[in-house]
Amino acid sequence: MAGKIVMIKAKPTAKDGVFLLGVGAQKAGTSWLHLQLHSRPDANFGFCKEYHIHDALTVPKLIRYRQQHGSWLKPRTMRRQRFFSEPNRYYDYFCGLLRRRHIRLTGDITPSYSCLSANTLTTIKSEFSQRGIPVRPVFLMRDPVERIISSQRMKLRKRGQRNQEEEIQALRSLVNKLPKRFSIRSNYAHTLNALQEAFGHENCFIGFYETLFTKESYSKLCNFVDISYKEPNWQQKVNVSATSNLIPDDILQELGTWQAPMFKAVKCHFPDLKLESIWPTASTWCTR
Fold first, then answer.
1. Burial class (CB in 10 A: 0-12, 13-18, 19+), 8
2. Residue-range domains of the chain with CATH
3. What is the average per-residue pLDDT within 208-213?
4. How remote is the C-alpha of 100 from its chain's centroid?
5. Cys staple from 110: which of 26, 50, 103, 195, with CB 3.0 to 4.6 Å?
6. Distances (CA, A) of 257 to 213, 263, 278
7. Predicted confidence (pLDDT) at residue 165 exceeds the cutoff of 90
């Protein structure tokens, strides 16, 4: 009796192009980067900037993104729900974008992907590889202390509270109850370790918010994702939380002490990098 023939559906493949996997960090220029790249005629990042697929599927603390209900009033949420129920749809969707004429770059820039494990990153790489698509991880970091201050300013701005007194009060409240654990979204050590294990740092673009807005850095990023350099809009600001408010030294001291392991982790991974020239306070915290 002849054996039963099982038909295996082949995965679709892209004709050419690259998938950019943006893994953070928060408040480190990811929104600006998405805006510049998505506006190019040779790039299409689809219907979202932050898809929140891999974090919602694998990070328990971020499961809430899977619990959002889509409807005709929320078409983006409905489309994302399909990715959750059938993960292959996610990979096939970006593959389809790269099959479009003139499109050479697509991607998903979700800052909380900084929480992903090496196993999850390896799965992402494998799924795209089966479709003939190389994955190019991009991780942008920012001075840990400055990132915290910027994040606090954004929260105050959303509440309509932006004067100096309220900002200092919020920061002082933060340092008075510093958590023992680092936020899962801002643990540079975890992200760097996971990227090293899954891709190798030599196959990642690991950059800094402080140098991103320069022709040298941006051109390197374009080269990394195999697209030609196109002058970005340097003046375009996204989610900016700048202020001239002076932060008291004692608050900066507390924040620096708290974030010292993050400074040390970056220095440990890149011992030859002159981190002090990028983050001036690094020299203080890397040696403690």
1. exposed
2. 18-285 (3.40.50.300)
3. 95
4. 25
5. 50
6. 28, 10, 18
7. no
Pairing type for strands 105-109 and 205-208 reads unpaired
Residue for token pair 């960090």: 25
Structure tokens at 11: 């995965």
Per-residue pLDDT of 260-270, as tens digits, reads: 889 999 999 99
DSSP 176-223: HT--SSPPTTS-HHHHHHHHHHHT-GGGSEEEEHHHHTSHHHHHHHHH
Instruction: Give per-residue pLDDT as tens, 106-141.
Output: 999 999 999 999 999 999 999 999 999 999 999 999
Report the alpha-carbon distance of residue 149 to residue 103 in Å, rounded. Answer: 38
CA distance linking residue 45 with residue 35, whole number of Å: 10
Residues whose CB is less than 8 angstroms from the CB of residue 133 and which lie 6 or more positions away in sequence, other chains included = 13, 14, 17, 18, 19, 94, 95, 98
CA pair distance 233, 237, nearest whole angstrom: 9
